[in-house]
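fyi for ur records
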Amino acid sequence: MNRRTVDGILVLNKPQGMGSNQALQRVKKIFSATKAGHTGNLDPLATGVLPLCFGKATKLVQYVLNADKQYRCVFQLGTTTTTGDIDGTIVEQRDYSQVTLPQLRKVLRNFIGDIRQIPPMYSAIKYRGQPLYKLARQGITVERPMRTVTIYDIALVDFAVPASGQITVDIKCSKGTYIRTLAEDIGTTLSCGGCVLRLHRTMAGNYSDEQSITMQQLTDLSANNALSLLDKLLLPMSSAVSHLPRITLENTNSYYFCRGQAIQYPYCPWRWVTVFTPNDRFIGVGEVLEGNKLTPRRVFS
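which gave:
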């Protein structure tokens, strides 16, 4: 099938056992799209919200990548693995039966706020041009600088200790947070170790579970050659930045904005804005600089 130009954003419910890029390539083929990009890696173990940007919307990938995320996680206490999740090789198993509910709640509270993490070796971060996970598969470990991330909230959903050693938590966090590392650090603090058993992303930026489409739904539509129905699943490009204030430019200023020229704009209390024309067409993202200069940062002419 010939490739075609497709513009918009699909919220995929990524299936387990598939990497983000693998999922992207499959969906791109289903849509027969010429250009598409995903908005950040989800581990093969993980499921859930993975916004995919098609065509011109790929210019907005960074806005979703930098956005806050939310997860429903099941941690297995007492088990430490090479990867920080249950897919890895088990390196240690310890008794978790001594963990109490009050103790766990106290430990979880201590992880709320700005925390420091060492990125795992099994990650897509590059070291001298090589992804860390490729080095990890060769048995090579390199030093990784600590990062500061923010955990906005950890809500305990279920406590199955001592029965199974599993705890279920809802986590809201900043970009760059490694949930596998968080599971390990919580397990270490509890003196029993821990890893991720299941992980489902419930929200990424402006996109939530309720908007997501499964791979099976897409495959079914593809089998019927229903490209028009597939296209109806796409959200507008502006949805990626709908959290930003919106301004409207009259036609003359829209013309110059679309050509990458900064324009004078009346007093604007915001730094970052989405920009529309009088007929409600999204034309880009702008930054308001000193002197009320509205400067184009992403333009859709």
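The two ends are 28 Å apart (CA to CA). thats all i got for now
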